[in-house]
């Protein structure tokens, strides 16, 4: 009997190790050398225009994933959408800055408890450098917990975490350690590739790194041709799991007001992202290059196993 048990345990150990050795693609049912891509729209909740463009890109385009800025004014519309679409793939875009000229927001946690995160008017600082200069890490943690808990309380089931403007990817390792700590505690994946992982390195803060590359257009691409950047990026995608970060929106008065005096990642940028990722050209490239669009929800299911 003991011998049979030992043999059974040996086969179980071998099976677990074989599963662990499989690529993410294989574990999801694709060939080992498959190209998997999460097309990920940032900034849900910031304005109505961004919400509506993203929802339409879900329905009519190649976008299957997004992330939510919990402190922003149009969060209730996102919560209503999440309840109507319980299979949504929407994470929390952990937000500690408020970058626009006239559209500003502050904390979810009580302001008096996170005062080191706020400027003289009670808003978040406009950039990461000012945040890092003033913030107390314990108040950062309080605010980020409040954001995740508020989203859940409003009926959103977050599928992942990521960081608005990359403020949690500081040279101060405490920010990355907090990011990983929250992902573990809430049992959801955090967007991390090996470059981001190097910011941490403290035992006990390791999490599975499933993303090979995090891609996205930058200022030179916007100033030349966004559609060319995206087409080339898709055509040159290598096997593995990648994230393409985009920003959907419409170039209308609401969006123009949001991005007043801030041309980059503004109204025209978001319209171009929306146009490309809802286009037949994008769908055709994905098909021609045999790129499989996947979601954070699928990756999260694997990690839970």
Automatic annotation (TrEMBL):
The keyword Signal applies. It comes from the Bacteria. CDD domains: YdjC_TTHB029_like. One of its GO terms (biological process) is carbohydrate metabolic process. Pfam families: YdjC. Its cofactor is Mg(2+). GO terms for molecular function: deacetylase activity; hydrolase activity; metal ion binding. Residues 1-20 form the signal peptide. Keywords: Carbohydrate metabolism, Hydrolase, Magnesium, Metal-binding, Signal. PROSITE patterns: PROKAR_LIPOPROTEIN. InterPro entries: Glyco_hydro/deAcase_b/a-brl (IPR011330), YdjC-like (IPR006879). The keyword Hydrolase applies. This is ChbG/HpnK family deacetylase.
């Amino acid at each position: 009997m003991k011998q049979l048990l030992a043999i059974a345990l040996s086969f179980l150990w071998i099976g677990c190790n074989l599963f662990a050795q499989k690529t993410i693609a294989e574990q999801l049912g694709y060939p080992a050398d498959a190209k998997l891509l999460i097309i990920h729209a940032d900034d849900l909740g910031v304005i109505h225009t961004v919400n509506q463009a993203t929802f339409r890109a879900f329905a009519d385009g190649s976008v299957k994933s997004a992330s939510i800025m919990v402190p922003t004014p149009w969060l209730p519309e996102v919560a209503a959408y999440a309840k109507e679409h319980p299979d949504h793939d929407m994470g929390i875009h952990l937000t500690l800055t408020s970058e626009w000229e006239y559209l500003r927001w502050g904390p979810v946690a009580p302001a008096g408890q996170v005062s080191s995160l706020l400027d003289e008017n009670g808003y978040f600082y406009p950039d990461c450098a000012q945040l890092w200069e003033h913030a107390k890490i314990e108040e950062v943690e309080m605010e980020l917990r409040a954001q995740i808990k508020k989203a859940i309380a409003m009926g959103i089931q977050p599928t992942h975490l990521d960081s608005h403007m990359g403020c949690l990817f500081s040279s101060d390792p405490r920010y990355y350690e907090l990011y990983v700590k929250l992902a573990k505690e809430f049992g959801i994946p955090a967007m991390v590739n090996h470059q981001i992982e190097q910011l941490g390195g403290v035992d006990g803060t390791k999490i599975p790194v499933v993303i090979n590359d995090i891609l996205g257009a930058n200022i030179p691409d916007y100033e030349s041709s966004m559609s060319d950047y995206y087409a080339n990026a898709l055509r040159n995608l290598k096997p593995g799991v990648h994230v393409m970060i985009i920003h959907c929106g419409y170039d209308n008065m609401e969006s123009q007001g949001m991005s007043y005096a801030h041309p980059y990642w503004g109204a025209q940028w978001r319209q171009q992202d929306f146009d490309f990722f809802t286009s037949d050209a994008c769908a055709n490239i994905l098909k021609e290059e045999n790129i499989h669009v996947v979601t954070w929800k699928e990756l999260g299911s694997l990690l839970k196993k």
